[in-house]
Amino acid sequence: MGKPTVHDIAKTAGVSLATVDRVLNARPGVRQKTIDRVNEAIDSLGYIRDLSAANLARQRVYRFAFVLPEGPDQFVDTLRASLQEAAANGQSDRLGIKQYRIPPRDPHAIVGVLQRIGSSHYEGVAIMAPETPEVRDAILRLKEQGVAVVALVSDLPTSGRDWFVGTNNIAAGRTAGQLMGQFQKDPNGKILVVSSSMLARDAIERRLGFDKVIAERFPDLNVLPSLEGHGDTERIAKIIKRAFELNPDISGVYSIGSGNKSLLEAIEPFRIANSPIIIGHELTPTMRKALISDHIDAVITQNVGHLARSAIRVLKAKCDNAKLLESQERIRIEIVLRENL
Amino acid sequence: MGKPTVHDIAKTAGVSLATVDRVLNARPGVRQKTIDRVNEAIDSLGYIRDLSAANLARQRVYRFAFVLPEGPDQFVDTLRASLQEAAANGQSDRLGIKQYRIPPRDPHAIVGVLQRIGSSHYEGVAIMAPETPEVRDAILRLKEQGVAVVALVSDLPTSGRDWFVGTNNIAAGRTAGQLMGQFQKDPNGKILVVSSSMLARDAIERRLGFDKVIAERFPDLNVLPSLEGHGDTERIAKIIKRAFELNPDISGVYSIGSGNKSLLEAIEPFRIANSPIIIGHELTPTMRKALISDHIDAVITQNVGHLARSAIRVLKAKCDNAKLLESQERIRIEIVLRENL
DNA sequence: GACAAAATGAGGTACGCACCTCATTTTTTG
DNA sequence: CAAAAAATGAGGTGCGTACCTCATTTTGTC
C-alpha cells in the first residue's frame, strides 16, 4: 500500500473524513477524546500531509516581504538580485515575494515600513536592519500577528525573530584574523584595521573576533587602532594616506565593512612598497576583480544566493510549521582566494 | 486573473483540452500545425505547468539510484549519510532513492551494478566512480535508455553524463598550493606531497593545480616528489619517517587524497621540531578534530550536504527537463580553518 | 426525560493536471 | 468521390487535500 491518506486515517480512527479534516486543520467542534483518537491514528499510520496537494487545494501563495537597506551597496544589490532570481524561479513554488527598501539609519522609517507590512497580510518577513528598540518592538508586533520573521545578515536576537539567516560575525572576524596572522611573514608586523559598516553590530563583532585571534595566536602582531571611513571616498583616501605615512611598516590591512572600493584605491600607492596583506569582507564585484588582479589576498564572505534561498526556505518551513534541515540552513563563513573564486 | 491553466491554453488556441494535453505530454496524433498553435498559445500566455499538480495527478515518484564506492572511507560515509538525510526529508518530495555500493577498483563489477540499475527503471542515476572505458560505455547505455545521469565528486566527462556535481580538482589543488605558499614563513621551504586517492583522477588533477601555483607564484619553494601511501597505515608511517629524516627542513605537508588519519599520526613526531604547515582535503571527522586541535592548518573541502542535495536537484530537473539554477549547483571549493569550521 | 447544544457524518465541489474512451470531424489516398 | 486513416472534441475519473453545507447523532443540563 502507498502512503497513508486522510481516508486511511478516517478508517483506522473510526471517524468520518470531515472529522479528520477538522482535526488536521484545527477547526473547532471536535471533542478532545476524538482529537486524540485521530492523532493516534495519524502517528500509528505515519501519515504525512501531502503538502503539494494541500497547497493545490487551497490555492496557496506564500506571501513574503523582504526588507533590505536602500542606498548604494554592492552587497545588498547582489542580495537583492539573488532574491529576484530565487523568486522568479519560484513562481512555480507558489512564492509571492516583495522587496521593501529602508533607510538604514532611520529607525522611525523602518518601523513605518514594518507596520505597513504588518497590515498587508504577509505570512513571513525577512529583515536586514540594525537592532534598535523601535525595530525590535515592531518585530514583536509582527510576531504577535502570527507573521514568521527571520533576521537577515545581521541578527536581531532580542526581537523574538524565528531564525537568523547569516553568519556569526565574531567567527568571521576570527577567520580574518587567523588568515591575516598566518599570511604575515614578519611576526611583528603592523596591521591596519579600517571600519565602515552600515550595520554597526557586524563591524563591532568582526573586530572583536579579529582582535581576539590576534591576541591569542599572534601576540607579536601590532594591530593599530581602527580607522573609520564612513563610506566617504575622500575621507578614506586621506586617513589611509596618513596611516601609511605614520607607519611605513604596515604589513597588513583588514577592511571590516563596506566601502572596499575606495579603500583599495587609497591603498594602491602604498602597495608596491609595503606589499601588505589585504583582507576584506563580502565578495562583491569589486572584491572579485581585486582578487583576480591580486590587489587583495583574501575575502571572507557569505554566499548571497544561499542567504536568499535559505531565508525563503526557512520562512516557508515556519509557515508550514515544518522541521527544517538545519545543516542546510547554516550559512558558512567562506574564505575566497584568487584560486577558488 | 491568476496563473494560466490548461483551460486557458485550450481557449486561446481554439482547441480542446484533450488536444492541449496531447501536446503538453507529447502524445501522438496531433498535426504539426495544431502543435504550433498550442505552443504559441502557451508562450503567449506565459503558461507554466504546475509541477506539483502534475506530479500529484500521475502519482509520481522520482526513482534515483546513487552509486558510491564501498569500503572504509570517511568522506564517502558522510556523503552517504547526507544522502540518507536528504532522502528521508524528501519522502514528502516524492523521492525514491536507493544507494548502491561498488568496489571502486573493479570496473567489471561496476558495470554489473549499472546494468542492474538500467533494468530497474530508474529515472536518474548519480555515480561516483573512476573513469574507465567499461564504465563509460555502461553509462552511455543508461543514457540511451533515457536515464538521467550525473557524475558525483569525480567527473566522467567522456561518458555523456548530463551534469557533474563536484568541484574542479585542479582549482582545488591550486587553492591548496596558494594557501601553502602564503602560509610559509621561509620562501625556500621544502614541501612534502603525500598522495593516496581512491579516484586516481582527482589526485592527479589536484597535484597538477598545486604544482602549477607553486611554480607560478612561489617559485622558490621546493616541492618534493610525491609519496604514495595507498591507504596503508604502516607504509605511510614508514615513508613519512624516511622523508623527514632525509629532509629535516620540511616546512609543509600537502595531503592530496584520503588516508589522512594515518598521515597525521605519522607526522606527529616531527611536528614539534619542524612545525610544518599541513594542508589536506575533505572535512571528515578526523580532519575536523585535527583542525580543532591545531594538528592541521587548513582543509580544502566540498560541502557533502550540498553535494547530495545538488545531485538530487539536478536529477530532478533533468527528469522534468526543467532549467536549473546553475549558481545554486556550483559546488564551492571551501577553505576551512579552525576558525570557520 | 425533554431539550438545547455540541459533535459527528455524509456528501459535494474545487484545485490543476494526467490519462482514458468513444464519438465525430477532417484529411489523405487510391 | 468514397473509403480508410488521421486528427480532434467531449466528457469522465482520479490524485490528496481543503472547505463547505446540511442532516443526524450524541452529549450535557435542568
Q: Describe it for me?
A:
Two copies of one chain form a homodimer. The longest helix of chain A is centred in the middle third of the chain and has 18 residues, at 200-217. In chain A, helix 9 links the parallel strand 6 (190-195) and strand 7. Chain A is built from 14 helices and twelve strands. In chain A, strands 6, 7, 8, 9, 10, 11 and 12 form a seven-stranded mixed β-sheet that branches. Chain A has a five-stranded parallel β-sheet with strand order 2-1-3-4-5, sandwiched between helices. The radius of gyration of chain A is 25 Å and the shape is elongated. Chain A has 341 residues and is α/β, with parallel strands linked by helices. The A-B interface holds A 2-3, 48, 50-53, 55-56, 59, 85-86, 89, 91-92, 171-172, 174-175, 177-179, 182-183, 185, 209, 213, 297, 300, 303, 305, 309, 325, 327-328, 332-335, 337-340 and B 2-3, 48, 50-53, 55-56, 59, 85-86, 89, 91-92, 171-172, 174-175, 177-179, 182-183, 185, 209, 213, 297, 300, 303, 305, 309, 325, 327-328, 332-335, 337-340.
